[in-house]
């Protein structure tokens, strides 16, 4: 009789122990020996991904695994280094916390990028639209019908040459538009072409050829007023997604340079020194472990991550400006990296200022650098150091 009772009890006890063991294992607990004594210790998960994948992962200097993989680690800080032949290494200190997932997404840049010309006749005055997908520019070396203003839509067109893949917006029969300076409207639907010789201003529709573009020299103020309304409406739409506390923070201390493409991060210059309050409390689990800087200083440039309520200082020169009087720092399409043009080179860095990598160092014109929407290339304007030729557009391959 006793045996009949013991067997079910033993089975239930075995099932309970097995269930508890599986549960603890699933939560990351592992047996380890500390000072020669067995202990059950909690672990965290480290997920390592890289683009391209198949890179080696070193933890504290030891080759441990390869991307893309997930490993259990005891809580603590780890120096993670990701290495792949032909690419610059990626390195960062990652904090692993018990029962939490820490994630690494390393974008690796080639150490010997390919430089390819995509124009041959020479182009001038390139400028990118607010969506960062279209480049407007002028051509002055062809016939009157072929000279004029063009737009390349990088999001839909294949890379051939800009002459065959781009859309002509206006030719030179209207005025000296082949030398015009171009300005995009806030919604990317129109451009103003300002001619150098006659000082005339023409309004161009960006979706096709303008046979007789209107001269808006006398009505420029009204056009600028409409554009300013569009800009304000667009900015208001972005601000409505933020909390009132964050909206006041922006109003009091931020001069916005640009929003990330996914509109979760703000690149800004501090207008005054202050200490940013904690908006999300308690702090988010699994957030970026790079130390932040909430004590902002006037005129310094930062990135604020509204999704994680974290703020990072960027080591960039706030006084630099490009030909359009904009700071030469731009968002990468993935919203996690920035392109910084300075000292005759192009650097790519993560939004928390880590892993700054020089992806191009060579001659190019006026700090102009445009990122292809897929993130696979950077477009630059250069004459390769030959002052006797008109510059052309080239792509710097980042794959």
Task: Summarize the structure in words.
The chain has four helices and 30 strands. Among the domains are: 65 residues, Carboxypeptidase-like, regulatory domain (Immunoglobulin-like, Sandwich); 121 residues, no CATH class. The protein is globular, with a radius of gyration of 27 Å. A four-stranded antiparallel β-sheet has the order 5-4-7-8, with no helix packed on it. Strands 10-30-29-28 form a four-stranded antiparallel β-sheet, with no helix packed on it. A four-stranded antiparallel β-sheet has the order 11-12-13-14. Helix content is 15%, strand content 38%. A hairpin with a 4-residue loop joins strand 22 and strand 23.
Which structural traits does this protein have?
399 residues; mainly beta; 4-stranded antiparallel sheet; 15% helix; globular
């Amino acid at each position: 009789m006793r045996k009949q009772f013991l067997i079910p009890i033993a089975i239930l006890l075995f099932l309970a122990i097995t269930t508890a063991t599986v549960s603890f294992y699933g939560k990351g607990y592992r047996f380890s020996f500390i000072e020669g004594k067995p202990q059950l210790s909690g672990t965290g998960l480290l997920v390592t991904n890289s683009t391209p994948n198949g890179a080696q992962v070193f933890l504290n200097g030891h080759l441990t695994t390869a991307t893309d993989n997930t490993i259990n680690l005891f809580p603590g800080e780890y120096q993670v280094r990701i290495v792949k032949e032909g690419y610059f290494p990626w390195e960062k200190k990652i904090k692993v916390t018990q029962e939490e997932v820490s994630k690494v997404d390393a974008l690796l840049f080639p150490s010997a990028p390919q430089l390819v010309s995509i124009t041959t006749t020479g182009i001038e005055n390139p400028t990118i639209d607010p969506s960062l997908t279209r480049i407007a520019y002028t051509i002055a070396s062809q016939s009157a019908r072929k000279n004029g203003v063009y737009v390349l839509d990088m999001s839909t067109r294949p890379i051939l040459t800009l002459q065959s893949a781009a859309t002509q917006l206006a030719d030179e029969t209207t005025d000296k538009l082949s030398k015009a300076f171009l300005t995009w409207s806030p919604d990317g639907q129109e451009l103003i072409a300002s001619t150098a010789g006659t000082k005339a201003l023409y309004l161009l529709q960006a979706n096709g050829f303008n046979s007789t573009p209107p001269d808006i020299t006398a009505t420029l103020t009204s056009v600028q007023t409409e554009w300013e309304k569009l800009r304000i409406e667009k900015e208001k739409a972005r601000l409505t997604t933020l909390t009132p506390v964050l909206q006041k923070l922006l109003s009091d201390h931020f001069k916005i340079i640009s929003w990330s493409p996914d509109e979760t991060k703000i690149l800004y210059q501090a207008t005054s020194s202050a200490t940013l309050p904690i908006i999300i409390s308690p702090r988010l689990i699994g957030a970026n472990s790079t130390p932040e800087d909430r004590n902002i200083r006037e005129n310094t440039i930062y990135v604020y991550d509204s999704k994680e309520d974290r703020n990072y200082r960027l080591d960039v020169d706030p006084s630099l400006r490009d030909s359009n009087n904009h700071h030469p720092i731009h968002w990468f399409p993935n919203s996690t990296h920035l392109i910084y043009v300075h000292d005759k080179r192009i650097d790519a860095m993560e939004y928390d200022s880590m892993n700054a990598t020089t992806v191009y160092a060579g001659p190019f014109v006026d700090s102009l650098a445009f990122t292809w929407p897929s993130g696979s290339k950077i477009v630059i304007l250069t004459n390769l150091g030959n002052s006797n030729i008109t510059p052309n557009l080239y792509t710097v391959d980042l794959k």
